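Supplementary Methods. Inverse-folding protocol.

Structures were first reduced to a discrete structure-token string of length 56. This string, shown here, constituted the complete conditioning input.
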């Protein structure tokens, strides 16, 4: 898929740097992931920018 996208526009970034899939194996892990998803936006409330352009 990346090759097809890059054939159309070579400047498009398809994959997120330093991103890794994770298999959630237990209900406890699933609960931790859900908690992270809910609580993470509060960590970004400062609105500062990181060097990679993402908000902190």
């Amino acid at each position: 898929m990346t090759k097809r996208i890059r054939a159309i526009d070579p400047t498009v970034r398809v994959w997120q740097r330093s991103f890794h899939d994770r298999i959630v194996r237990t209900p406890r892990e699933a609960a931790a992931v859900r908690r992270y998803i809910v609580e993470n936006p509060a960590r970004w409330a400062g609105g500062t920018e990181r060097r990679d352009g993402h908000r902190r």
